[in-house]
Design brief:
Blueprint (H helix, E strand, L loop, with lengths): L1 E6 L7 E4 H4 L18 E2 L3 E4 L3 E4 L9 E6 L25 E9 L8 E8 L2 E11 L12 E5 L7 E2 L3 H4 L7 E2 L5 E2 L2 E2 L3 E7 L11 E7 L5 E3 L2 E6 L2 E2 L2 E2 L3 E10 L19
Parallel strand pairs: 2-7
Antiparallel strand pairs: 1-2, 1-6, 3-4, 4-5, 7-21, 8-18, 9-16, 9-17, 9-21, 10-11, 10-18, 12-13, 14-15, 15-16, 19-20
Length: about 270
């Protein structure tokens, strides 16, 4: 399924992403995590509840027109249940239009950063990202990639976070890779590593899958002209070649088309 949202009678969508990835559950064929539990994302803006309960609480104001579509790009008919709620009222003048776009690199090309968001022009506010990462080959420690944000034409990062685990609110390999020797899940209001997929609890050398999120609700990132965000795919031994899948979320003063094109159907399969 592909979710699209169009604002103010625009022909191009401002939101376009595979349905499950939009809700932070890109590995949607996995009904149990490493510990045998249904993966639960419990945050301020998104909830993934047991039984495929995908819930979004992002505010999405518009002034005249909204159109939401769902495209079935599969090979057979499917059943869809949904609820959409809203209200009529005066929209504050400085309200922005909600945007979301999907990206993937399977695998990330060695020697360069993975692009989470680029091609955004105008005035707006970055609101967050969900990331699904699949380990390829020797695991070691994959969480050393720095998240970097470039605001209003800056050549060097305007904001430069440390390791991947630090940007997503964790530390020391999302647990403690020295004493506990295992990754550990957590799910908070604004950030989390809420699911680890794979049959083993051992720390390294296995092709695990991770699902993470980071909402910039209390620390929004504003831009006046343009915005770009990247994150490195790095470990202790340097560049890696893991599978990265992401959805970026932001607001703009005017509705804009998504800056990226979706991959072909066969490339969208997450394993």
């Amino acid at each position: 399924f592909i979710l699209r949202i169009y604002w103010e009678n625009n022909e191009q969508p401002s939101v376009e992403a595979p349905f499950s990835a939009f809700f932070g559950c890109a590995y949607d064929e996995n009904f149990s995590d490493r510990d045998g539990n249904y993966p639960v994302l419990n945050s301020a803006t998104m909830l993934v509840a047991p039984g495929r309960g995908f819930n979004s609480y992002f505010e999405m104001p518009f002034r005249k027109h909204c159109r939401i579509t769902m495209e079935n790009r599969g090979e057979k008919p499917e059943t869809l249940f949904y609820m959409i709620s809203g209200w009529y009222g005066e929209i504050p003048e400085n309200s922005g239009y909600f945007h979301a776009t999907y990206r993937q690199e399977h695998p990330v090309q060695k020697g360069r950063s993975y692009v989470i968001l680029d091609g955004v022009h105008g005035k707006g506010c970055f609101a967050g990202v969900t990331l699904a990462s699949g380990m390829n080959g020797h695991n070691t420690c994959w969480v050393e990639g720095e998240a970097k944000m470039y605001i209003d034409g800056d050549t060097y990062p305007t904001m430069n976070y440390t390791g991947t685990e630090d940007y997503f609110g964790g530390s020391y390999g999302f647990g403690n890779d020295i004493y506990l020797n295992r990754y550990q899940t957590f799910s908070g209001l604004y950030t989390g590593l809420y699911a680890i997929l794979g049959d083993t609890k051992e720390m390294y050398n296995h092709q695990k899958r991770f699902m993470l999120y980071r909402w910039h609700v209390k620390d929004p990132v504003y831009f006046d002209e343009d915005f770009k965000m990247t994150i490195d795919n790095l470990g202790w031994t340097g560049p890696r070649y893991d599978d990265y899948t992401s959805v970026a979320y932001w607001y703009q003063t005017e509705p804009k088309p998504v800056p990226f094109t979706l991959p072909e159907d066969k490339e969208l399969i997450m394993e």
